[in-house]
Specification:
Blueprint lengths: L2 E6 L6 H14 L3 E7 L13 H10 L4 E5 L1 H4 L3 H14 L4 E6 L5 H12 L1 H13 L4 H13 L12 H16 L4 E6 L18 H10 L11 H9 L5 H20 L9 H11 L3 H8 L6 H13 L3 H6 L6 E6 L1 H9 L8 E2 L8 H17 L5 H4 L3 E2 L1
């Protein structure tokens, strides 16, 4: 059975995701689609709108065969670590292809970009360092460095100012670094831009726009942008946001104080003092974020810090987690179950269907993040121990 992997968040699963999933199957002639999906906290430093089992159910109803959780340590990391963790999981599951959506729509520019960056790696890294010393944010520093090395070639390069292109580039970089045999395939992103908040006239909207509409009005307004199965699941579940979690976050910041905050992952350069002052002064999440955001610290970068504050994710814990060490099964179809059986001897990481007495620091972080996420939903803790994989 030929397996193709995709990397997803499904926050929530919408028509654009359905198009991607179907095209991934068609373009690679896949028998099985394996989705590596972030858990309860996402790469942009946000809580998922609904829990990971609901989103896994959406994925299976949309045609995925296996849904594997991307561990917290990678799901909430910067793009290179996020991509590397996902690629390692798909490689462990013996995927022959990885298919990602991109603004570019063709693989060749990514190949040229990767070759150019490897050729001029020293220049690239020096330019990033200089830009950051001048006070620029990391994404802006990357963009300037990339523009610099782009002048060294006449080959068409991928536009790495676009969010899906950035992730696609890092997937391919990770494939090369771990020496995987997976073949990358890309398809052009359809519909609205990744960050677009307005809902379009056609049936494909961004997840950002769908979430904004959900919190501003109600779930009925997004029905036309989602498969009916996703809409029904979304309609049945309470919706999570930073507004719900901010009281817990504010308490954590004020209780810990700047000295303790400095030990949290991603908190650097004295920003702990800004977080502490903002928590003392602002009663809402939006006000807090506006007080902390600066030229150096983007909204996304700050949110990732705050997720780590909320979950107590220490720099020392992150140092222990260098690669995925298990495959957390969130859901599977009958086809997916047959695939797992067929490749059982070749799969290079243990499959975990339900959390038990594991001491793995990465799995412990997944369990803790679930419990904290559920606090904002006023639901019971321990669901990672109680909830079996979704079966369709």
């Amino acid at each position: 059975m030929l397996a193709t992997g995709i990397v997803v968040e499904y926050n929530p699963f919408h028509n654009g995701h359905l198009f991607h999933l179907n095209e991934a199957k068609r373009l690679t002639d896949a028998d099985v689609i394996i989705a590596v999906m972030s858990g309860h906290f996402l790469q942009r430093g946000e809580p998922a709108i609904v829990d990971k089992w609901t989103r896994a159910h959406m994925a299976l109803a949309g045609g995925a065969d296996l849904v594997i959780e991307l561990p917290y340590a990678f799901a909430t990391a910067h793009a290179p670590q996020f991509a590397r963790g996902a690629v390692q999981i798909l490689d462990a599951l013996q995927c022959e292809y990885i298919c990602f959506g991109s603004e570019e729509g063709h693989i060749a520019p990514f190949v040229h970009s990767l070759d150019t960056m490897n050729t001029h790696k020293k220049l690239y890294e020096e330019k990033i360092k200089c830009s950051m010393q001048e006070g620029l944010s990391y994404p802006n520093a990357l963009r300037i460095a990339y523009d610099e090395i782009s002048r060294t070639t006449d080959e068409p390069l991928a536009d790495l100012s676009e969010p899906n292109n950035i992730l696609g580039f890092h997937y391919m970089q990770a494939i090369k670094e771990i020496r995987s045999n997976m073949m990358p395939v890309t398809l052009e992103r359809k519909g609205t831009h990744y960050h677009d908040e307005a809902l379009p006239e056609d049936s494909i909207a961004s997840a950002t726009g769908i979430r904004k509409e959900l919190f501003a009005t109600d779930v009925a307004h997004v029905q036309s942008f989602m498969p009916s199965s996703s809409y029904e699941l979304l309609h049945q579940q309470p919706h999570q946001s930073w507004d719900h979690l901010y009281p817990f976050l504010r308490y954590m910041i004020l209780r810990e104080g700047p000295e303790q905050l400095a030990s949290i992952a991603d908190i650097t350069e004295g920003i702990e003092f800004s977080l502490w002052r903002a928590a003392k002064e602002h009663a809402t999440f939006q006000e807090f974020m506006k007080a902390v955001k600066s030229k150096r610290y983007t909204w996304t970068r700050i949110q990732r810090m705050l997720v780590h504050v909320l979950t107590g994710y220490q720099k020392s814990t992150r140092a222990q987690i260098t690669s995925p060490s298990y495959l957390r099964l969130l859901g599977m179809s009958k086809n997916g179950r047959n695939y797992l059986r067929s490749v059982k001897k070749e799969v290079t990481l243990p499959v975990v269907s339900r959390a038990g007495s594991h001491k793995d620091p990465s799995l412990l972080m997944d369990i803790k993040s679930t419990d904290i996420y559920m606090c904002g939903m006023q639901r019971e803790p321990g669901l990672d121990f109680k909830t079996p994989p979704i079966l369709l």
